[in-house]
Amino acid sequence: MNSQFVFKKFKTSDHHLYAQSVALRQKILRAPLGKCFSADDLAIEKNNQFYALLFNGKVIATLSTYEKSENLIRLVSFAVDSTFQYQGAGSSLLKQTLSDIKNCEYDKISLTARESALGFYLKNGFEDISGPFANKILGIIDYEMVLCLT
Question: Which of 43, 45, 91, 134 has its CA 20 to 30 A from that of 30?
């Protein structure tokens, strides 16, 4: 990746990065579905660990994680700015995030992938454990996926 890309790990208390993360996720993940983040959606993120890839100081890719159990971490809300999609930004962010998660000694990482992202996650070593299912909240097709880290 370009040397202008910077990997950042942050919490919701880093208001500047968090606001950029929310805006990017809204633009990429919610707006195309005619949805918005609610206050409740954002409130449940207060203890999440966020990761971002910055380009010239601006968040261009982001995701968050939370501990689901002692050995399992959950990845949620992965978004890459459309200008940087299919250029390795998402793969770079995922690779660096997975490295950080492995250092925290989790055994597995799980996620729910949109149908449009299934190939990306398969390419990055995740396994589809559910087959397609309807996400009734967002009105899309999703897949439950897992990656063993050990």
Answer: 91
CA 133 – CA 94 distance, rounded (Å) = 24
- In the chain, the domains with their CATH numbers are 5-148 (3.40.630.30)
The angle at the Cα of 136, spanning 66 to 84, to the nearest 5 degrees, equals: 55
pLDDT in tens, 57-98: 999 999 999 999 989 999 999 999 999 999 999 999 999 999
- In degrees and rounded to multiples of 5, residue 95 shows phi and psi of -60, -45
Q: Which two tokens stand for residue 145?
A: 């996926």
pTM here is 0.91
Place of tokens 């919610």: 30
Judge residue 61's burial from the number of C-beta atoms within 10 Å of its C-beta, 0-12 exposed, 13-18 middle, 19 or more buried. Answer: buried
Residue 45 to residues 16, 18, 65, 66, 120: CA-CA distances in angstroms?
A: 15, 10, 9, 8, 24
Question: What amino acid occupies position 49?
Answer: Q
Distance of CA 32 to the CA centre of its chain: 17
Type of residue at 3: S
